[in-house]
Amino acid sequence: MILSEEQQLLKDSAKLLLSENAPISALRAMRDAGEDHMPGLWSKMSEAGWPGIVIPDAYSGLEFGYVGAGVVLEEMGRTLALSPFLSSAVVAATLINQLGSEQQKEKYLPGIASGDLTAVLAADETGYFDLSSIEAKATASGDDFVLSGNKRGVIDGHNADLLLIVTDGDEGPSVFMVESGASGVSCETRLIIDSQRAADITLNSVTVSGDALLGSIGGASDAIEFTIDVAAACSAAEMLGISIETFERTVGYLKEREQFGSKIGTFQGLQHRAAQLFAEIEVSKSAVLAALQALDANSEKRSVLASMAKAKCSKVVRNATEEGVQMHGGIGMTDEFDIGFFMKRAAVCRQAYGDYHFHADRFASLRGY
Amino acid sequence: MEHLEQFRQDTREWLEANCPEDMRQPMRSDEDQCWGGRNWVFTSEGQKLWLERMADKGWTAPRWPSEYGGGGLSGEEAKILGEEMSRIGARRPLSSFGLDMLGPALLLYATEEQKQQYIPNIINGKIRWCQGYSEPNAGSDLASLRTKAEDMGDHYLINGSKVWTSYADKADWIFCLVRTNFDCPKHEGISFLLFDMASEGVSTKPIKLISGTSPFCETFFDNVKVPTGQLVGTLNKGWEIAKYLLTHERTMIGGFGLAGGGMKGMGQMAAAKRGTRDGRLRDASLRTEASSFEIDEMAFGLTIERITDETKAGQGTGASSSILKMYGTELNKLRQELYMAIGSTDALNFDTDSKGALVRNWLRSKANSIEGGTTEVQLNIIAKRILGLPA
Question: Are residues A294 and A208 part of one domain?
Fold first, then answer.
């Protein structure tokens, strides 16, 4: 369970690119300017080929696998870089690659791999990722389909080119690719806590042609499960990065800040909490790597490991960001200081693609209880 | 790669042919462990054969050099052996502080002559060792120990006492920390001695624990003579060896945090006892606790794997044993708590037969975060040595 040389190199180059192009100050500037994305970052990431990391070579991807995507996301978590990498290049690309016909993959994957096209999964309607309660419907109409429904809280949904709409019916769930500009699609954008945008998307009798259907009617269950695994493990990797960065900043502060005539890092009460948190982060590192490796190997333990990693990292990142603010004391509560940004992004990552409770419950069910 | 596949094939065949049937059954309790030593009474012919056959191949110590009777296996080969053993549910042929603690220190610090003398008898289980570390006034602050060793020319004269000596009453030899200099900082006057527990002046007294069992002893030394050749390493530099050995002890105790082989998962065990509704464990609160526990248990097991792999690749951090010790023992305490919850009132039986095993294991587990350096000591080590927090 160690990174290969190529994976380590990718991680190092991600760290470099992100520290140059997406430091926290860039996020702050974006927020203060009221913008909804980080200008220039996505094109830098695209030049580096990252949007193609999980896409097969046959469709102009790097075919670098999910461990590769995970190490990039870990580094993104460290600098809180905002981009459609997870939503489009990892999650949506995975679903298209899983379900799509040869023609559909040839049509869309190279665009996603180059970064020119972005796609997002629009599945959830509940706000708590309950995909068993999907009410969006697709009705066949000749060779076409007519789609209706409401999708909630789609991150990056406001400026994606392609929406992957999940519908449900008697046969089971189906996935349709809908262009965001299609007639009948409307999108309401909400500002969320980490300065990103979440879109509530309404489909009002949207007509799409038959080749918009990914896979078969009712045939998307397995691909959706696989995609949930990918999203969970990769989101866990991002939370791991947030935990590590928050922790390092906090330990740095314990070594600097003086009270009662001593560095506060000499106090055993703080030392033990820091040590405890360090151990938890070490444990979550292993959880993430194992989950990512299981995706690359398509192992049968894949889903158990993915939910384990998402649940574990959700808990740890909550702890890391809470301790980060607490140990910084008053200054940790100020907007001027950066530590709060980590807590805000962590709150979003914890909810994305199923929260702790969703994944702990899924884990238990998968383990037979 | 081809070599490793061949090794796996050969190992599988050898284990199939040589592991006795009763050594493939899960251990029912600690009683089923084989500790070896001069006075060991094998519980079955299978237990005896299994130890002899494994020791003969050096596979009780798979990675130790073959010149001292070890298996001489590479990291990959040892991993395969472990996998093949768990595939058939093979028990560990020998539980031993010699294997888990003393041996690695001897390989690093002992003279060639000492290695030749002591290591083969660890591997074949002929000598059972105990650890003389803690003293009545030197627990967490181990380096303040005061058992005295006076240099008498050809021997040291030992006076003092130890406490929490695991199985001292059953051990043949002891590796023991003694003070050889009182006029210096406490870490700089400690030496590392080996001696026979049958020596004149050694006595032991078992300590009865809250679990009703007595795995620990008080150990007394009254003018015990130890030949000077039984000093390991340099005089007064024993603390370095002591610390190195402690990292092995911690890793061993941290291993308690792993799920037992062949055991059902916590959640399934709870479901079997409390029943299910719509396929889910009926008691929602217990289900929540069980899944939280299993998530940590799984992530911890993966962490042991990762740290092992990193160490093999030369990327390990020396203080990782403190993380494993702290996390693993806290996890095991939680495991025992959940077993008690699942066992319900039946779990309260305190009979001496196997029915009382659950409650005894629960009580025993409370020592996990005390022995081998308390959880608080491990947190101190992590804070200072890894995080570099100021003193």
Answer: no
Please tell me the predicted confidence (pLDDT) of residue B17. Answer: 96
Active site residues of B: 249
Chain A residues 279-308 with CB within 8 Å of chain B: 279, 282-287, 289-290, 304-305, 308
Residue-wise pLDDT tens digits, A54-80:
999 999 999 999 999 999 999 999 999
Q: Reduced to 3 states, what is the DSSP secondary structure of residue A285?
A: helix
Say whether residue A348 is in contact with chain B using an 8 A CB cutoff. no
ipTM greater than cut 0.85 = yes
Return the top range by mean pLDDT from A100-114, B87-101, B338-352, B354-368: A100-114
Compare CB distances from A367 to B294, B327, B390 and report the shortest one's residue: B294
Q: At what angle do helices B2-18 and B75-87 cross, to 10 degrees?
A: 40
Distance CA A156, CA A141 (A): 30
Domain boundary among A102, A117, A132: A117
Of A255, A305, A360, nearest to B389 by CB-CB distance is A255
Q: Are residues B50 and B89 in the same domain?
A: yes
CB-based contact A96:A119 (threshold 8 Å): yes
A-chain residues within 8 Å CB-CB of B268? 367-369
Cα dihedral sign, B241-B246-B252-B254: negative
Least confident of B9-13, B75-79, B98-102, B132-136: B75-79
CATH number of the domain within which A93 lies:
1.10.540.10
Rg (CA), chain A: 21
**Mean pLDDT lowest for which of A170-179, A300-309, B67-76, B286-295?**
B67-76
Domain count, chain A: 3
* Nearest CA-CA distance, residue B378 and chain A, Å: 9
Residues of A in contact with B303 (CB under 8 A): 282-283, 285-286
B302 with A363: Cβ contact below 8 A: no
First and final C-alpha spacing in chain A: 29
Domains of chain B: total: 3
- Average pLDDT score over residue span B82-92: 90
pLDDT of residue B327: 96
Cα A185 vs. chain centroid, distance in angstroms?
A: 24
Residue B196 structural domain? 129-238
CATH code, domain carrying B319: 1.20.140.10
Domain shared by A275 and A358, yes or no = yes
Do residues A127 and A242 both lie within one domain?
A: no
Q: Which domain holds residue A322?
A: 221-366
Both A98 and A49 in one domain: the answer is yes
| Residue A276 touches chain B, beta carbons under 8 Å | yes
Using a CB-CB distance cutoff of 8 angstroms, which residues of chain A are in contact with residue B299? Answer: 283-284, 286-287, 308-309, 312
A189 and A168 inside one domain: yes
Contact (CB, 8 A) for A365 and B280: yes
Rg of chain B (C-alpha set)? 22
Do residues A254 and A361 share a domain? yes
pLDDT tens figures, A290-328: 999 999 999 999 999 999 999 999 999 999 999 999 999
